[in-house]
Amino acid sequence: MKDRNSVSSIIHQIAKLEESMINQQLHELNLNSDQAHTLRFIGDHSGTNQRAIATILGRSAASVSNLLKVLESRQLIEKRLSPDNDREKHISLTPQGQKTVKNVNHAFDIMDSRVDEALSAPDQVRKSLDKIYQHLVKKE
To answer: Which Gene3D superfamilies does the entry mention (predicted)?
Structure first.
């Protein structure tokens, strides 16, 4: 067993700390991680549908349906019938949802800045981490 100073262990520790810090920021916005990711996705893909959100989150249709009901009840999203398919609804952000996404993005931007501040060569570290990620994906 490797010690806590192995590269993979340090990456894991950073990821857990980052997740904790982001979740604290999201809690202040009265959001959980799935809600924040959903809002960001809808912001980037206005008019998306529930199926696409389920795919990106890796959640069941029923789970996403409940998540969307909460966001809709909080007036962060709106659903409109698709002009092409009356069984499908297009989902977009409301003005309040757009404001919330700006706040969520700001929380992620702060985290990115804090990480970059600690590095002397952030672009090189990014390239190395991407190389590790690509190598691990190939092994799956």
So the answer is: Winged helix-like DNA-binding domain superfamily/Winged helix DNA-binding domain
